[in-house]
Structure prediction request, 502 residues.
Amino acid sequence: MTTTAPATTICPRSDFDVYTDSALLDPWPGYRELRDAGPLVHLDRYGMFAATRYDTVSHVLRTPEVFPSGEGVMMNDEMNQVLRGNTLCSDGEAHDASRRVIARPLTPKALRPLHDEIRAEARGLVDRLTARGSFDAAGDLAHHLPVTIVSNLVGLPEEGRERMLVWASEMFNCFGPMNERTQRSLSVLGEMMEYATTQAVPGKLKPGSWAEAVHDAAARGEVDPGKCPVMMIDYMGPSLDTTIFAISSAVWLFAENPDQWDLVRENPSLVPSAINEVLRMEAPIQDFSRSVAVDHEIDGVLLPRGSRVIAFYGAGNRDERHYPDPDRFDVTRNPTDHLGFGAGPHACVGMNLARLEMRALFEALAEKVTRFEVQHSERALHNILRGFTRLDVTVH
Amino acid sequence: MPKITYRVGGDSTTVDAAVGTSLMQLALQNAVSGIVAECGGNAMCATCHVYVEDGPVDRLADVGAAEDEMLDCTMSPREPNSRLSCQIPMTDEIDGLVVRVADEQH
Prediction:
């Protein structure tokens, strides 16, 4: 008698809680445990599957017919309802149409006229801060370009715009599972949606701004006008915090690895490669999820239709199956295929702008700063985002 | 195994391709110079620009909408045979394709 091995093996399970304070502050050991357990692991506490290996995360993100975004990319039903139909949470033609509108000012060509302004602003800021000798790299350094230049380009009405930083952060918290952190943040969402619906409207938006262009596109029939408020969220949510956190993480990594900062200073053409390495090591967005549209097998493990899988970008980026010595910060590695911006049809639409902002800052810093010394740091305790709320540094 | 030829300046490199990768990934895996691919293959940066010069050109899939918009952003001029190499999947059908890597990507 012969037997044939079953086509699928049982999915490994784990009761590890990825969203405790300690796991969020230091996710790497937990990610490693999950990666080693299998290509997919059932997280018993949340009733969802975790994808933590590079190949699995990449596959999930690049296979939208199996892993659609239209059912939401968050880990709780409330939030998946709130953002239904924005660019992030849509598929196929509807997604392509709204992404085309959102992406228009963010292509390399559209951003080219901004290069000089962003470089000059970065240089001025770095001159002012380095003259002081010490500053908060999270608040003073990282906030400046996104808050002054980018939020102006988005063009929301002045009144209420100062709340954007709070809204963006709280909104991303609500992407997590329905834990205490998510519940605390949910109340702020109402305020954000109210603003998107009643204030971010034609007549109140800055003329020529990106937000106004969304309404113009809707008026031309390129997207459903009813979607304009949730499309405002496409700009309001990710344009600030993510870049801010990436910048603070970069300063921290350079402070911790002075030899790598030396390499960048000696050869500033390494800045783009160093930025990719920062985003690989410390992805500002650690995880989004996808629903599972059909039964699907990954490396022998069956993922049932109707379930939800969380794609951990931060874990995939540290997978030794893909990156040799993944916990080592190496500015010469140039990992252009990192998952810090996601991948596939929903890859970060603002990546060119984020790169431009970071590049301008670190090229200016490379001219002025020989050493960063961290005096005091506070990490954000956040369901989804990774970075610093405070990073006091002395520069030499 | 399909073979792809990349022309870079006066040089020419022919490499064996594994089906399932893209023309961009294949170039990076084989250290073909001139392909930057800053966005990692998401049709967002226009830094993996190639000109399709020879071989089974008519077997290539059409230029998609995202690729079309990004081809308007290339540093080297866009030509009728311009493509983003990240948007060309490797198949047996394109065995023998010859592409020229654009001179300037950034």
User: Anything to note?
Assistant: Chain A has a mean pLDDT of 94. Chain A has one domain: 13-395. Strands of chain A lie at 13-14, 41-43, 48-51, 134-136, 287-291, 296-298, 301-303, 308-312, 372-379, 388-395.
